[in-house]
């Protein structure tokens, strides 16, 4: 077999030839990153206000992450989960000590963390709630792309073409407590929600709603499972978004920002819900020393530097700046939502895409929401005041022109 030689400056050709057609991409090839900046293969610099989709918590190639990975990679990269490894147990301890949950299971991605939560809810329902197995989710929520997490995800465009999906999922309107109350039956094992819906354009659960959901779950003896895969690790101005609501979940899933760029996922549960027994669940790579060393370094840094506090302060700066832009004529913005360093900026028809392209041309990366109507702003938690001001300057030009 002969390999076609491709011009490396033509990644679009390489993608067409070798990669499945899954990602709508910006027409740039990123080759290097440092802090809030990335550079493409032409040497052009971009201000990255995506943090790799809420992943690069400390920015690109932060020395703390680089050093942790470097040290671990020369010591022990992987070992079977049939033995103990210290980075895994140390990260589990750190997560437990800094959350309301008691036990951790590690995996490699957000979808896997939610699969673990779904299995945990089913096992809990089977053994503790008379065989209850149904999970109620929000019809505008997003939980991943595996069969189980697609069934949990409300968006039709994610599900269509892949049916039949696993049974046992019911969807209700987000922020509608009465709808949730009506949907709970004796078969319901759990409610699974994002406290803040990322893919849906940073749509926040109201305080009333999430507190009401907690009370309702308690009343009905149903688990409350929060998907904090995007909202966790300081993004919203508290280490976990649930803290901002004054409630505690029974199960929480985490991924994205935990590894600071290294793939990791985790499902955390209260002791009474952590009902797995040996053989119930496993992951070859889950909790490997390399990923856990990265996760341990990220979490320690986030806590030691109070990056959630930094996210609150700089989030306020961004919010104020966005408010000024909204007060000016001709901006096309219909709504700004957010918490901490995480905003969804909604536009009229076609507006989000146009502004996204203009920002890209001006050297700034943003994420478009799954709905296509909003832009998501999610810089690394190490963002500086100057970088926030630069974002506002570029964004102001992009919405005006
Ligand atoms: C809230 C939420 N849950 C789950 C996932 C799936 O995570 P992953 O892509 O790591 O499987 C995502 C990804 O965007 C997410 O935002």
Automatic annotation (TrEMBL):
GO terms for biological process: L-arginine biosynthetic process. Gene3D superfamilies: Aspartate Aminotransferase, domain 1, Type I PLP-dependent aspartate aminotransferase-like (Major domain). Pathway: Amino-acid biosynthesis; L-arginine biosynthesis; N(2)-acetyl-L-ornithine from L-glutamate: step 4/4. Its EC number is 2.6.1.11. Pyridoxal 5'-phosphate binds at residues 110-111, 142, 227-230, 284. Belongs to the class-III pyridoxal-phosphate-dependent aminotransferase family. ArgD subfamily. This is Acetylornithine aminotransferase. It comes from Cystobacter fuscus (strain ATCC 25194 / DSM 2262 / NBRC 100088 / M29). The lineage of its organism: Bacteria, Pseudomonadati, Myxococcota, Myxococcia, Myxococcales.
């Amino acid at each position: 077999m002969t390999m076609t030689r491709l011009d490396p400056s033509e990644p679009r050709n390489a993608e067409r030839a070798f990669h499945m057609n899954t990602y709508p991409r910006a027409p740039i090839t990123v080759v290097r990153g440092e802090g809030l900046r990335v550079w493409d293969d032409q040497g052009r610099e971009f201000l990255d206000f995506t943090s790799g989709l809420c992943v690069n918590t400390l920015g690109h190639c932060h020395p703390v992450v680089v050093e942790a990975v470097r040290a671990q990679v020369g010591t022990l990269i992987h070992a079977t989960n049939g033995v103990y490894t210290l980075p895994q147990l140390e990260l589990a301890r750190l997560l437990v000590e800094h959350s309301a949950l008691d036990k951790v299971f590690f995996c490699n991605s957000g979808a896997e963390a939610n699969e673990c939560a779904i299995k945990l809810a089913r096992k809990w329902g089977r053994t503790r709630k008379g065989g209850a197995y149904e999970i109620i989710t929000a019809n505008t929520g997003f939980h991943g792309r595996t069969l189980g997490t697609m069934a949990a995800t409300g968006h039709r465009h994610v599900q269509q073409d892949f049916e039949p999906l696993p049974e046992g999922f019911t969807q209700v309107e987000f922020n509608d407590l009465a709808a949730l109350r009506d949907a709970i039956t004796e078969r319901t094992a759990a409610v699974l929600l994002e406290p803040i819906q990322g893919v849906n354009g940073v749509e926040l659960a109201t305080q009333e709603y999430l507190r009401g959901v907690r009370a309702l779950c308690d009343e009905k003896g149903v688990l409350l499972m929060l998907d904090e895969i995007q909202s966790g690790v300081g993004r919203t101005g508290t280490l976990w978004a649930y803290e901002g609501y004054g409630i505690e979940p029974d199960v929480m899933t985490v991924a994205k920002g935990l590894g600071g760029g290294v793939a990791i996922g985790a499902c955390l549960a209260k002791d009474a819900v952590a009902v797995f027994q040996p053989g119930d669940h496993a992951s070859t790579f889950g909790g490997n020393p390399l990923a856990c060393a990265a996760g341990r370094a990220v979490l320690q840094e986030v806590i030691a530097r109070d990056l959630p506090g930094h996210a609150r302060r700089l989030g306020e700066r961004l919010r104020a700046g966005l408010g000024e832009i909204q007060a000016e004529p001709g901006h096309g913005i219909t709504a700004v939502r957010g918490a901490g360093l995480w905003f969804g900026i909604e536009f009229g028809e076609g507006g989000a895409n146009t502004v996204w392209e203009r920002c890209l041309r001006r050297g700034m990366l943003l994420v478009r929401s799954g709905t296509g109507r909003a832009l998501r702003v999610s810089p690394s938690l190490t963002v500086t005041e100057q970088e926030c001001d630069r974002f506002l300057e570029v964004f102001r030009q992009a919405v005006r022109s």
